[in-house]
Amino acid sequence: MDALINPTEHALHERVIESNGTRVLEFRPKDGGALDAFMPALPARIERGMCEYGGVLLRGFDALGANGLDGFASRFGQTLHAYEFGSTPRSKIGKGVFSSTEYPADQWIDQHNEQSYTRRWPASIFFYCEIAAEENGATPVADSRVVLERLDPALRRRFAERRVMYVRNYGNGLDVPWEQVFGTDDRAEVERYCRANDIAYEWLDDGEALRTRQVCQSEWRHPLTGETVWFNQAHLFHVSNLPADVREALLDVVDEDRLPRNTYFGDGTPIDTAMLDEIRAVYRDTMLAFPWQPGDLLALDNVLMSHGRAPFKGKRRVLVAMTG
């Protein structure tokens, strides 16, 4: 009877891709076709897959295109049309569609849950591969539940008790300018946003530069599954994450308190670099990576699954939509 009501529900190949304890559910049409042809059955299956696995890969469907990404993502919640309090350079492509982080192709972007350095973050994030790189350029993922399980309990307790302070400096020409981060050139509007989100701020250099501090969680409990996950970017924002030559060059130019970004424990005391190295090692040992194919769409629960970016060669265009 199900097949008569919705014949497309049984026209999909389904398999689990797994590596290092991280799993992604893949759906592939048996005979090709547009995503719209598989509605309305597919969204419910994607939602179940995201809750169970953390991520769902849609592969082999007709190209969705940048114009179709916002509409698809909106089936899973209201899409975000602004990248508020962002930490990386992005370009807005369409209504709710952005470029993925625009860092140089030779740079590795470590694992992170989108905007886990704040107290407000997207619920879901959707990556769409328009152009696959000639070499590499994967978007590795890691299950945040598995990361939590593999971390030393003593390290987890220390972070849970003290939390994470993120210190950011804008306006020094070394990172994303505050006007872009806050989406305004009105300082009063910036101050209102900071007060509303419990972000400490101070204007420097006669108001040309801005410094913010915010103390946030190290772990989070998923509102639907009840599972606790590792959920912060202490390792990513910390100065030790920079390549040694870049770190030395920056510290030759600015004092440590003027670095574009850095992390401390919530009380302002330093985080031992060895602890951050342990976190990075757990992420590396938990990652699942696969090469992009043009037309691929990767749907992630942003709490359950982290993501990153591998270096690449050649042209690469991966677009992003997020739901609130």
TrEMBL record:
Q: Which domain of life is it from?
A: Bacteria
Task: Supply the InterPro entries for this chain.
Answer: AlphaKG_dependent_hydroxylases (IPR050411), TauD-like_sf (IPR042098), TauD/TfdA-like (IPR003819)
State if Oxidoreductase is listed as a keyword: yes
Gene Ontology terms, MF aspect: 2-oxoglutarate-dependent dioxygenase activity
* Gene3D superfamilies attached to this UniProt entry: Clavaminate synthase-like
Which keywords does the record carry? Answer: Antibiotic biosynthesis, Dioxygenase, Oxidoreductase
Residues in TauD/TfdA-like domain copies: 40-322
Co-factor(s): Fe(2+)
GO BP annotations listed: antibiotic biosynthetic process
- Protein name, please? Taurine catabolism dioxygenase TauD/TfdA
This protein's species is Caballeronia pedi
